[in-house]
Design goal:
single chain, 3 helices, mainly alpha
C-alpha cells in the first residue's frame, strides 16, 4: 500500500512539474515575441527589459544582439 501511495505521489508530482515547466516556457515564448515586436517598433532595450521583467542582457540574447 505504501508503494502504491509513493508511486501515485511521484506521478502527480511529475505531472505538476511538467505543467509548471510548460507554463513557464509559454510565458518565455510570449515574452520573446513581445520583445521582438517592441524592438522592431523602435523601443529601447532598457524599456523592453523592464516591460518583460528580464535583464537587458537576456533581451539582447533573445534578439540575437549579444556579442559572444
Amino acid at each position: 500500500m505504501i508503494t502504491l501511495f509513493d508511486d501515485e505521489y511521484i506521478y502527480k508530482a511529475y505531472v505538476e512539474s511538467e505543467k509548471k515547466e510548460a507554463a513557464q516556457e509559454a510565458t518565455r515564448r510570449a515574452n520573446v515575441k513581445t520583445a521582438r515586436s517592441l524592438y522592431e517598433n523602435g523601443v529601447s532595450l532598457d524599456v523592453i527589459a523592464h516591460a518583460v521583467g528580464q535583464p537587458t542582457k537576456t533581451i539582447e540574447e533573445w534578439l540575437g544582439l549579444a556579442s559572444a
